[in-house]
Design brief:
Radius of gyration of chain B: 19 Å
Largest sheet of chain B: 6 strands, mixed, barrel
Low-confidence stretches of chain B: 1-19, 182-186
Number of helices of chain A: 3
Strand content of chain A: 15-25%
Number of helices of chain B: 3
Structural class of chain A: alpha+beta
Strand order of the largest sheet of chain A: 2-1-3
Oligomer: heterodimer
Radius of gyration of chain A: 15 Å
Distance between the termini of chain B: 41 Å
Distance between the termini of chain A: 11 Å
Order of helices and strands of chain B: EEEEHEEHEEEEHEE
Low-confidence stretches of chain A: none
CATH class of the domain at 30-142 in chain B: Mainly Beta
Helix content of chain A: 25-40%
Structural class of chain B: mainly beta
Strand content of chain B: 35-45%
Number of strands of chain A: 3
CATH topology of the domain at 30-142 in chain B: Cathepsin D, subunit A, domain 1
CATH architecture of the domain at 30-142 in chain B: Beta Barrel
Largest sheet of chain A: 3 strands, antiparallel
Order of helices and strands of chain A: HEEHEH
Largest interface: A-B, 40 and 52 residues
């Protein structure tokens, strides 16, 4: 299985997203995360990405909407099931 | 890509400024497909230019996308994302009946004719070479209205909401306008 970056950030997001979502100042905004630090929250994806490029240049950084249902990928493409079924890692 | 029209639509309040277009959406065995261009997110281009101190050549790739209204996010083959040099901005678990994997998320700009949509895409890593390069999910489709014209066996994709539909109040579903001179039940 190939390496996927930003796993530390992804875990940090999953650990805290429920708490952040309860905060009306943060719910629905976009989080910019690096390592285990919430760098900032922004009104839109593009604002968070712009801040990420300004602060971290061309290095990876984590951006996600502050919503417990965010960061979950679903699809109805039946072909993906066929193509991905051999790539199990969990 | 062929675009039939970009026009102002007339309505009973005069000319509104709704732009509409009809990219050639093909109904294939897999579902409706269209071609679009994929390139770096504008902020990544800016960061590249800041780093190099000069204008940079922006890599662009024309890809075939399957419209998937059941997909939460748009996705592309990871190899395409890596070839273009897209910047990673996330990591998302994807799960199905027979698989579970963690996939990278990249910042990107999708270009559909005159419409440039900065957004994110999930990088998919299929084991076998698929005949789908890109899934167009609801994160991008939210900007469009699509309908199927059965007699012509074709699709029409509008940017925004076409004049036939009323703009809904927040939280309401989109309801079609009642046709003029038609009483209920006719």
């Amino acid at each position: 299985m190939p390496q996927v970056g930003l796993l530390e950030e992804s875990r940090f997001f999953q650990e805290h997203v429920a708490d952040w979502f309860k905060d009306k100042q943060r719910a629905g905004k976009w989080a910019l995360i690096k390592k285990r630090e919430l760098v900032g929250t922004f009104d839109s994806f593009n604002e968070a990405v712009a801040a990420g490029f300004r602060k971290f240049g061309l290095k990876p950084f984590f951006v996600s909407e502050i919503d417990p249902e965010a960061n979950k990928f679903t699809t109805t493409s039946l072909m993906l099931d066929e193509f991905l079924c051999d790539c199990q890692d969990g | 890509m062929n675009f039939f029209a970009i026009a102002r639509m007339a309505d009973n309040t005069g000319f509104s400024h709704i732009l509409y277009f009809s990219p050639r959406i093909r109904l294939t065995r897999d579902g409706p497909k269209l071609n679009l261009d994929l390139t770096l997110h504008p902020e990544q281009v800016h960061a590249l230019e800041m780093q190099s101190g000069a204008k940079v050549t922006i890599p662009t790739r024309n890809i075939e996308a399957l419209i998937d209204t059941g997909a939460t996010y748009s996705s592309v083959l990871d190899e395409i994302a890596l070839q273009l040099g897209l910047n990673q901005v996330g990591s998302v678990p994807i799960a199905g009946a027979h698989y579970h994997q963690q996939c990278p998320v990249y910042s990107v700009e999708l270009m559909m004719g005159p419409f440039h949509i900065p957004c994110s895409v999930v990088g998919l890593k299929p084991k076998h070479k698929p005949n789908i390069e890109c899934l167009l999910g609801r994160d991008v489709l939210q900007f469009f209205t699509m309908y199927y014209v059965g007699p012509c066996q074709s699709f029409v994709l509008y940017h925004g909401i076409p004049p036939l539909y009323e703009r809904p109040d927040p939280g309401d579903r989109i309801a079609p306008q009642k046709p003029p001179n038609q009483s209920p039940g006719t």
